[in-house]
Design a protein that fits this description.
The complex is a heterodimer of chains A (294) and B (668). Chain A contains 1 helix and 16 strands. In chain A, 3% of the residues lie in helices and 46% in strands. With 294 residues, chain A is an all-beta fold. In chain A, strands 1-4-5-10-11-14-15-16 form an 8-stranded antiparallel sheet, with no helix packed on it. A two-stranded antiparallel ribbon of chain A has the order 2-3. A two-stranded antiparallel ribbon of chain A has the order 6-9. Chain A is extended. The termini of chain B are far apart. Classes of the chains: A mainly beta (294), B mainly alpha (668).
C-alpha cells in the first residue's frame, strides 16, 4: 500500500489565450497542482486445500488532484476549464435537469419572455441564478471531473485438481464523460435513441427538430451528453485443463485451455459505449488452445 | 608494439590538449538552421515573408470556410437558407444565435470571425513593428511592407467594427500573455482605421494590383471607412466628422474611378475561363485575394466559396453531379427580393449573375439525351398564368399537366422546370416550398462557381476572391453624394451619374445575344475528370426569353439610366413601397442599397451595408422568410464571443458575470 501526496509547480501546458493578442494558444507555466492518492495492492489466498486453491489479487488506486493556483493567482480560467480547487479536466457547462414538459408551460413562458424559446421536449437546463434567462455568464457551472477517482483491478484464480480458472476485472469509477449528446441526425447511422415525442414524453433525449443540415436546433442538447462514466469490466476469463501422463503419446505435458477476452461489462453507467476503450466498438476474442511439450 | 602504443597515446593527449580550446567554440555553439525565430523578421527577407503571411491570414483564410458568408450574406434581403441549414442561426437570428454559439461540424461559432480577424491584426502588428524598426534602404521594405501592414490592420478593424461595434484596439504585437482588454468606442476604432489607411495610402505604390495592395486599394477602403463612419449606426457621435468624411470620400472615389475603368461588359468580370484567366486582372479589379493551382500556396483548401451558392441540380430528374455544376452545398438560396430587384428585360446583370439553365447529364430517358435542357428556372412576374405549377417535372404533373417543352432549343420536354410565379400567383414564395425537401432548388449565384477543380467533390477552388472593384467605388461615391445632399451640400441628382455609370454598363448592347450564358463552372480541365457516364451539366444559355416572354431581339436594351430622382425605376419603387419609405433621403438610400445588390450581389458586403444603414431589420423582415420572425434591433451588431469574455481579466481578476454582461452588446 502506498499513500502519497504530491505538489507540482511550474506546470507547463498549452493554454488558450484571447485571440486579441494575435495568437490562439501558447505554452506557459500555468501554475500549481496538488495530488493526493492511495495505491493498494492486496493478494489473498481464500482457499488452499489439497485439490482446491483460490487466490484473489486486488489493486485499487484512488487519486484526487486539484489546482492550487494558476499563473494569474487564484483566478478561475474558464476558457481553459481550469478552476481553483478543482481537478484539471472538468466539464463546465449547463446542467441538464431533464426535458421540458407541457405541464411546465408557465415556467417555460417565463423563460421565453426573456429571449429563450423553449417548448415541450426541449432540454431543460438549470437556471443557476434564477432570473428566468439562460445565459452563459450566469448559468454555466462545473458539472464534474473527467479523470477517474478510482482505478480498480481484480484477478481471481481458482484451481481444482487439474482444472484452473481465472477471471480479471478492471474498472474506473467516480468520474464523468462528455460524449457530446445526441444531435439526432437522421441521415447517418445512429444508435437507437430514446427521444421525446408525443407518445414518449418521459424520454431520455430531446425531441428531434427538423433540419436538413446539421445545426442542432436545441441549444442545450449537449448538456444531455454529460454522463457518469463509471464502469467495471470483465477483461478476461480463462479456463484450462492439464493432462497428466502423456508419455505414451510422446509428450511431456499437455494443456488445453479456452479464453474469452472482453466478454462484457459487469457494470457500466453508459450502456452504449465501452468506456474502457472509450468507443462504441471493441474487440471480443475467443481463444482455444493446446500447449504440448515433447 | 609497445612503442607504437606510447606514440598513439601521445597523439591522443596532444590532440586533446590542442583541440580543447577550439571545442569550446565550435562544439558548444549551436547554430539553429531549421527553425525561424523572431530575429528573422528583422531581416529584409523576413519582413517580406511576414507580409506574405499576413496577406494569407487576412485575405485568403476567410475564403476558406463558412464564417465569411455567414457573417456577410446570410440574414439579409439577398440570401436566405438554401436546402442545407448547417449555419441557420446566422440567417435566422434564432435563440441559438448567441455569444456562446459554438463551432460544431459545419456550424460556425460566434468566435470564428473574431479570432481570424484578430490573428490577422496580430500579424499586421508584427509586420508594422518590424518594418518600422528596419534600417533597410529598400522601398519594398520600408514603404511597401509598412503600408501593407497598416492597410491590413485597418482592413481587419473595419470588418470588426462593422460586425461588433466597439472592439479592443490592439496596436502592437504581444510578447507575453496579455489578458486585460476593454472595448474601445467605435469612434476610437474608426479614428485608428482612418489613420492607418491614410498612412498606407501615403506609403503604398500606385501599381502592382490587384494582388498586391496599392495606393488605390487603400483609398478605396479609406473612402469606405469614411462612408461607414458617416452611416446611421454611428449617428450618435459622427456629427463632427461627417461633412469632411463624405467630401473626402467623393474625392478619393473620383480619383480611383479615373484609374480603374469599368469593364465594358458586366459579364467579363465573372468570365472565369480557367485558372488565372484574364478576367481576374481587369482594370476594374482594385484588390483581390489571389488563388492559383499551386497547392503549396493554397494552404488548406483554397477558396471554397464556390460551394455554398449552388442548389441541388444533381438530384433532379436525369441529372447527376459533375464538375461543371459544382458541388452543391446549397447553403445560400436566392430570395424573392432578388427576383423583383432587376429590370429583367433590360438589365443583363441578373442573367449574368445567376444560373437559370442546366443540361441533362445523367441517366437519360427518351426522348431526352445528354446536353438537352434539363433544368430551367423561369423568373417570371406576379400574375403570370403560363405555367400551372412551381415545379413541373415527372413527379409533379400527374395526368393533369405536361412537361414544359424547350421551345427555344430542341423542342423536347424539359425534365424539370421551376417557376417563380406559377398559375397566376401574385404572392411570393412558390420557389421556397421545395427548399425544405430534398430538392433544394433555386437559381444559383454563379459568380464564384469553379469547374477548374481537380475532382468532382474537391472543395479546393482556384478562383481569385475580389475584395474591391471600381463598380463598388462608383456606388460608394453615389452614397456619399446622397448623404451630402441630406446634409445640405449639393443635390440628390449629384448621385445619379455615379449610379447610372454602373446601371448603363449592365444594359444589353446592340447585337448581344440576350440568352447567351457562361460561368466559372464551364472550365473543366479535362473531360476525364468527370465521373464515368456523366457529361457536363453546364448549359450555355439562360431562361431570358422563357422568363420575360418577349420576342427574340438583338437590339440594345432600353436605357437603365435614371434621369429624375423623383421618378425611380419600378423595381426600386416596389422595394420602397414594401418598406413603406416616404422621405426622399430614405428613398435614395434605398435606391443605392438596391443598386449595390444588383451590382454586388453575393460579394460579401451586404450584411455590413444593412447593419450600418440600420435597414437590416426592415429588409430582413420584408424579404428573408426565415429571419423575419426573429430579427430585432439587437441584431445590428453581433454578439461578442463568450470565449473572449471568458478568457480575459479586469484588474487581475477574471470577469464576474455582471462585468461580462456589461461588456456584451445589448440584448444578448
Amino acid at each position: 500500500m502506498d499513500v502519497y501526496t504530491s505538489n507540482t509547480s511550474d506546470l507547463l501546458l498549452q493554454r488558450s489565450i484571447p485571440t486579441v493578442t494575435g495568437f490562439n494558444t501558447t505554452f506557459a507555466n500555468i501554475g500549481e497542482t496538488a495530488n493526493n492518492g492511495v495505491d493498494i495492492s492486496l493478494t489473498t489466498v481464500n482457499i488452499k486445500q489439497k485439490d482446491l486453491t483460490w487466490t484473489t489479487t486486488t489493486t485499487a488506486a484512488w487519486q484526487k488532484e486539484h489546482i492550487v493556483t494558476l499563473s494569474n493567482g487564484k483566478q478561475n480560467d474558464i476558457s481553459n476549464s481550469w478552476f481553483i480547487d478543482q481537478p484539471i479536466g472538468v466539464i463546465y457547462g449547463y446542467k441538464a435537469l431533464g426535458l421540458w414538459q407541457s405541464k411546465d408551460a408557465g415556467e417555460m413562458q417565463a423563460f421565453n419572455a426573456n429571449g429563450n424559446a423553449f417548448s415541450p421536449g426541449n432540454v431543460r437546463v438549470e437556471d443557476v441564478n434564477g432570473d428566468h434567462k439562460i445565459d452563459g455568464n450566469n448559468d454555466r457551472q462545473i458539472i464534474g471531473w473527467t479523470r477517474p477517482r478510482w482505478i480498480v483491478g481484480m484477478t481471481n484464480t481458482v484451481s481444482y485438481k487439474r482444472l484452473d480458472f481465472s477471471i480479471f476485472l478492471y474498472g474506473r469509477l467516480h468520474y464523468m464523460y462528455n460524449y457530446g449528446g445526441e444531435t439526432e441526425p437522421a441521415r447517418y447511422v445512429t444508435r437507437e435513441v430514446n427521444y421525446y415525442n408525443e407518445n414518449n414524453i418521459n424520454a431520455e433525449f430531446q425531441k428531434p427538430i427538423f433540419n436538413a443540415g446539421g445545426a442542432p436546433l436545441d441549444p442545450y442538447y449537449a448538456s444531455l451528453g454529460y454522463l457518469n462514466a463509471s464502469f467495471i469490466k470483465i477483461r478476461n476469463i480463462s479456463l484450462g485443463y492439464n493432462f497428466n501422463s502423456m508419455a505414451k503419446l510422446g509428450l511431456t505435458s499437455l494443456r488445453i485451455y479456452a479464453q474469452v477476452q472482453n466478454p462484457g461489462m459487469l457494470y457500466s453507467q453508459i450502456k452504449f459505449r465501452d468506456m474502457d476503450v472509450v468507443g462504441p466498438t471493441w474487440n471480443r476474442g475467443y481463444t482455444l488452445g493446446i500447449n504440448a511439450s515433447f | 608494439m609497445n612503442k607504437y602504443n606510447n606514440f598513439y597515446k601521445l597523439i591522443i593527449v596532444g590532440a586533446v590538449l590542442f583541440t580543447t580550446p577550439s571545442c569550446k567554440k565550435t562544439f558548444l555553439d549551436e547554430e539553429l538552421t531549421t527553425a525561424v525565430g523572431n530575429e528573422f523578421y528583422k531581416t529584409d527577407p523576413g519582413i517580406q515573408q511576414l507580409a506574405v503571411g499576413t496577406y494569407y491570414q487576412v485575405f485568403e483564410v476567410p475564403t476558406n470556410g463558412e464564417w465569411y458568408y455567414c457573417a456577410t450574406n446570410y440574414g439579409t434581403d439577398e440570401f436566405h437558407i438554401g436546402g442545407d441549414p448547417s449555419n441557420s442561426p446566422w440567417n435566422n437570428y434564432d435563440p441559438t444565435f448567441n455569444p456562446a454559439l459554438a463551432t460544431s461540424g459545419n456550424l460556425q461559432g460566434a468566435n470564428n470571425q473574431w479570432d481570424a480577424l484578430y490573428i490577422g491584426i496580430g500579424d499586421a502588428n508584427l509586420l508594422i513593428q518590424n518594418a518600422t524598426n528596419s534600417t533597410s534602404t529598400s522601398d519594398a521594405i520600408k514603404k511597401t511592407a509598412l503600408g501593407e501592414g497598416y492597410f491590413m490592420r485597418a482592413y481587419c478593424y473595419l470588418r470588426l467594427v462593422s460586425q461588433f461595434g466597439a472592439v479592443p484596439l490592439k496596436l502592437s504585437p504581444s510578447t507575453t500573455v496579455e489578458l486585460e482588454f476593454t472595448r474601445q468606442d467605435p469612434k476610437d476604432v474608426y479614428d485608428q482605421i482612418v489613420k492607418d489607411l491614410q498612412q498606407a495610402s501615403n506609403l503604398l505604390p500606385t501599381s502592382g494590383g490587384p494582388y498586391r495592395i496599392t495606393k488605390d486599394a487603400a483609398s478605396h477602403f479609406l473612402a469606405k471607412a469614411y462612408l461607414y463612419r458617416s452611416s446611421e449606426i454611428n449617428s450618435s457621435w459622427n456629427s463632427s466628422t461627417i461633412a469632411a468624411d463624405l467630401a473626402a470620400a467623393v474625392t478619393l472615389c473620383d480619383g480611383i474611378i479615373s484609374r480603374h475603368p469599368l469593364a465594358s461588359d458586366f459579364k467579363s468580370i465573372w468570365n472565369f475561363t480557367g485558372i488565372n484567366s484574364a478576367n481576374e486582372t481587369l482594370p476594374e479589379v482594385i484588390l483581390s485575394a489571389q488563388l492559383t493551382n499551386d497547392v503549396t500556396t493554397n494552404l488548406g483548401t483554397g477558396n471554397t466559396q464556390h460551394l455554398y451558392f449552388v442548389s441541388r441540380y444533381d438530384i433532379q430528374d436525369q441529372m447527376a453531379r459533375d464538375l461543371t455544376g459544382d458541388r452543391p452545398f446549397s447553403r445560400l438560396a436566392t430570395t424573392y427580393y432578388d427576383y423583383r430587384l432587376y429590370d429583367l428585360v433590360n438589365d443583363s446583370r441578373f442573367w449574368k449573375s445567376f444560373r437559370t439553365k442546366s443540361a441533362v447529364n445523367g441517366t437519360t430517358t427518351a426522348p431526352n439525351v445528354k446536353g438537352d435542357l434539363g433544368i430551367m428556372f423561369v423568373i417570371d412576374q406576379p400574375g403570370d398564368t403560363r405555367f400551372p405549377l412551381s415545379k413541373i417535372s415527372k413527379g409533379t404533373i400527374g395526368t393533369t399537366y405536361s412537361l414544359v417543352n424547350d421551345v427555344n432549343g430542341t423542342g423536347k420536354p424539359i425534365p424539370t422546370t421551376y417557376v417563380a410565379y406559377p398559375n397566376g400567383r401574385t404572392t411570393d414564395g412558390a420557389l421556397n416550398t421545395d427548399l425544405t425537401t430534398a430538392y433544394q432548388a433555386f437559381p444559383s449565384l454563379s459568380k464564384h462557381l469553379d469547374g477548374s477543380r481537380n475532382a468532382l467533390n474537391d472543395v479546393q477552388g482556384h478562383r481569385d476572391f475580389i475584395l474591391a472593384r471600381s463598380a463598388e467605388t462608383y456606388l460608394l461615391a453615389a452614397e456619399a453624394k446622397i448623404r451630402l445632399a441630406k446634409a445640405g451640400t449639393g443635390s440628390y441628382a449629384d448621385a445619379l451619374p455615379y449610379i447610372n455609370a454602373v446601371r448603363t454598363r449592365g444594359q444589353f448592347v446592340n447585337g448581344e445575344n440576350r440568352a447567351a450564358y457562361n460561368d466559372g463552372g464551364n472550365t473543366l480541365l479535362s473531360a476525364s475528370l468527370q465521373p464515368a457516364g456523366v457529361s457536363n451539366s453546364f448549359y450555355p444559355g439562360n431562361s431570358y426569353y422563357e422568363s420575360n416572354n418577349i420576342p427574340t431581339t438583338t437590339a440594345a436594351s432600353a436605357s437603365l439610366a435614371i434621369t429624375d430622382f423623383n421618378n425611380l425605376p419600378a423595381q426600386d419603387q416596389f422595394v420602397i413601397n414594401t418598406l413603406g419609405l416616404s422621405t426622399i433621403y430614405d428613398k435614395m438610400l434605398c435606391l443605392v442599397l438596391d443598386e449595390r445588390s444588383r451590382e454586388l450581389m453575393g460579394e460579401y458586403h451586404r450584411w455590413a451595408d444593412l447593419s450600418r444603414t440600420k435597414t437590416l431589420v426592415s429588409r430582413a423582415k420584408a424579404f428573408n422568410v426565415e429571419a423575419a420572425t426573429n430579427v430585432a434591433d439587437k441584431h445590428l451588431l453581433r454578439p461578442i464571443p463568450q470565449t473572449f469574455l471568458d478568457g480575459i481579466q479586469a484588474s487581475g481578476a477574471a470577469l464576474t458575470a455582471a462585468q461580462k454582461q456589461a461588456m456584451q452588446n445589448p440584448g444578448y
